[in-house]
Design brief:
Blueprint lengths: L2 H14 L6 E5 L8 H18 L3 E7 L6 H10 L1 E6 L4 H7 L9 H14 L4 E6 L7 H11 L3 E6 L10 H20 L5 E2 H11 L17 E2 L5 E2 L16 E2 L3 E2 L1 H9 L22 H8 L7 H21 L3 H14 L12
Parallel strand pairs: 1-2, 2-3, 3-4, 4-5, 5-6
Antiparallel strand pairs: 7-8, 9-10
Bound molecules: iron/sulfur cluster (2 copies).
Length: 351
């Protein structure tokens, strides 16, 4: 992405976001650190616009971790950039899909760089993507991250994979074992944040997702491709082929007809969800997940349903097991305070 395009994307978001709202800018997709020079310049521009408009901004970078070095870490530390490293798990899990061009797995380099980052920065996160071939190893993966002392773990389902072979029963067993790893970490005095468990516990405490928590694609969430094309969420950019989900370009403007259609398509229209007892705790409205799994933004797939049910059960198990654990209670309070019980774990305003 050229600096000019990036500046326009920043201006676009600044104009569309109410003044009192904080904005998260996330550098994500491809590999942002391939152009650390541009990233630094964009960050500087975001800082200038933030001061000028007196609005809070947060900067986040999701990287494959292979290019992290002292200069990058020093910059992240100085500018308070939140770092998230894509690491799928222990070596056999990670190297299955994350390889260099010559076929070598990237695990050793990524873990070495992650260890350095953990020593230098606070709140380092990992993003572990799991597919049908690695989901069974999730408990082991979580145990590995806890031992590495990673403070925040994001577990993300590969929504582009085919999940037809995985049953709801299997998922339930796996997520419960993940919850056991989470419980065991707190019982051993190790605080850990994990989207799969924490976000559901917060939603229990709120008695369900609120209107602001729900999918904001095309309204409070945007994704910008290097071409300047605008998408309703970063997860829709893909190959940037200008599909019907492309809502315009920062150099030309928004296509309001397409934008209205996308905003209209949000929500959930599965018949079975209407009478489901856990619907207020379910993310059956995540437009991109639904789109990739069923072809419609408002229709949840069976695997999504199974995953949500399993996550709700696993979080309930963790909450019951840890309700007397002081470290866990302090963790929840910190989480609530930082998130102000607002939009849980989803990224906003991605570049
Ligand atoms: S991640 Fe899902 S819920 Fe969040 S904005 Fe994108 S489509 Fe909506
Ligand atoms: S758990 Fe399944 S049936 Fe219930 S609301 Fe979620 S997607 Fe719908």
């Amino acid at each position: 992405m050229s600096l000019e395009t990036a500046r326009k994307a920043v201006d676009f978001v600044m104009e569309l976001t109410p003044r009192e709202q904080a904005i998260d800018f996330c550098f994500f997709g491809g590999e942002p650190l391939l152009r650390f020079d541009v990233l630094r310049d964009i960050a500087q521009y975001v800082g200038e616009r933030s001061r000028e408009t007196q609005r809070p901004v947060h900067l986040n970078v999701t990287t494959n971790g292979t290019l992290l070095n002292d200069a990058v870490l020093e910059f992240f530390d100085r500018e308070r950039v939140h770092l998230c490293v894509s690491l799928d798990g222990p070596q056999p899990v990670h190297d299955r899909h994350r390889r260099y061009g010559d076929g070598r797995g990237s695990f050793s380099d990524v873990v070495a760089n992650l260890r350095t980052a953990l020593g230098e920065l606070r709140g380092v996160q990992v993003n572990a993507v799991y597919g049908p071939d690695t989901v069974g190893l999730l408990p082991e993966t979580v145990g590995f991250f806890v031992e590495l002392k990673v403070p925040v773990i994001h577990l993300n389902m590969d929504i582009c994979a085919s999940w037809t072979e995985v049953t709801g029963e299997q998922l339930q067993g796996i997520y419960m074992a993940v919850a056991d790893q989470y419980i065991s970490a707190f019982e051993r005095g190790r605080e850990v944040g994990m989207n799969l468990i924490d976000s559901k516990i917060i939603v229990f405490l709120k008695d369900g997702y609120s209107a602001q928590d729900r999918c904001g694609m095309g309204e409070t969430e945007w994704g910008f491709a290097p071409s300047g094309n605008i998408y309703p969420c970063e997860r829709f950019i893909g190959e940037d082929n200008g599909s019907s989900l492309c809502l315009g370009n920062v150099h030309v403007g928004l296509d309001s007809v397409r934008r209205c259609a996308v905003v209209e398509s949000r929500g959930n229209r599965n018949e079975e969800c209407v009478s489901c007892g856990v619907r207020q705790f379910c993310m059956n409205w995540c437009g991109c997940t639904n789109h990739y799994l069923t072809g419609r933004a408002d229709l949840a797939a069976p695997i999504m349903c199974a995953s949500e049910r399993a996550a709700i059960q696993a979080a309930s198990h963790a909450l019951t097991a840890l309700r007397q654990n002081q470290l866990f209670m302090d963790h929840l309070m910190r989480y609530v305070h930082e998130r102000q019980l607002s939009h849980a774990w989803n990224r906003k305003g991605a570049i």
